[in-house]
Amino acid sequence: MGFPRIVLVTAILGICQTGWTQSPTYRLGKTPTAEEIRAWDIAISPTGKELPSGQGTAKEGAALYVRKGCAACHGATGSGAHAPTLISRKGPRTPSSTPTPCLTPCISDSNTMGVHAPFATTIWDYINRGMPLGKEGTLTPNEVYALTAFLLYKNDVIKEDDVMDAQSLPKVKMPNRDGFALPPAWKPGESRLQEYP
């Protein structure tokens, strides 16, 4: 077999390999069912259309905050040493109330989720997916609504007796709703940050 034939055979095998790797499943795994996709699709948008039924108030959330052990990480007043600050402290800062330095991203009084998040549904989504630590996903929708209401109330966003549910939560006007801006549109070949390689 001459050199040109070897090159030709190698080229044909290479083309076949390229075609094989572009097959829909790569001969691995399986296509997920609609039910599996629904189970993974748990993100809650700002409109709240994905929120489940249920409801909760700040009073119910205050009891849950204690019962579920939130204070162990976040502190009894919502600003513990082990986890991000949840409740902004009110009044003048004294040396003892000044937060200790922390690594970025540092969650402190000025950027707690209850004040800094642009949408109240963001708080519900985070609690639902990420809390309590080590037992994520174990809270019921009613518990998540109540804890969300508690944090919103303690950060002076809603009243204590306001009921949070799938209809009322997306309507909550967050203090920083207009302070967020979408990042500029990105196009292939452009650096993602100005003056950054």
Describe the structure.
With 197 residues, this protein is mostly helical. It has helices at 3-21, 34-40, 58-67, 70-74, 113-116, 120-130, 141-154; strands at residues 55-56, 164-165. Strands 1-2 form a two-stranded antiparallel ribbon. The radius of gyration is 25 Å and the shape is elongated. Mean pLDDT is 80; it is low at 92-105.
Q: For this entry, what is the oligomeric state of its chains?
A: single chain
Number of helices in the DSSP assignment? 7
According to DSSP, the number of beta strands is: 2
Could you give a short account of the major beta sheet?
2 strands, antiparallel
The stretches of 5 or more residues where confidence is low (pLDDT under 50) are 92-105
Molecular shape: elongated
Question: What is the CA-atom radius of gyration, in angstroms?
Answer: 25 Å
- Indicate the structural class: mainly alpha
Question: What is the mean predicted local confidence, pLDDT?
Answer: 80
Query: What is the spatial order of strands in the main beta sheet?
Result: 1-2
Helical content stands at: 25-40%
Task: Describe the secondary structure blueprint for this structure.
Blueprint (H helix, E strand, L loop, with lengths): L2 H19 L12 H7 L14 E2 L1 H10 L2 H5 L38 H4 L3 H11 L10 H14 L9 E2 L32
Antiparallel strand pairs: 1-2
Helix pairs in contact: 3-7, 6-7
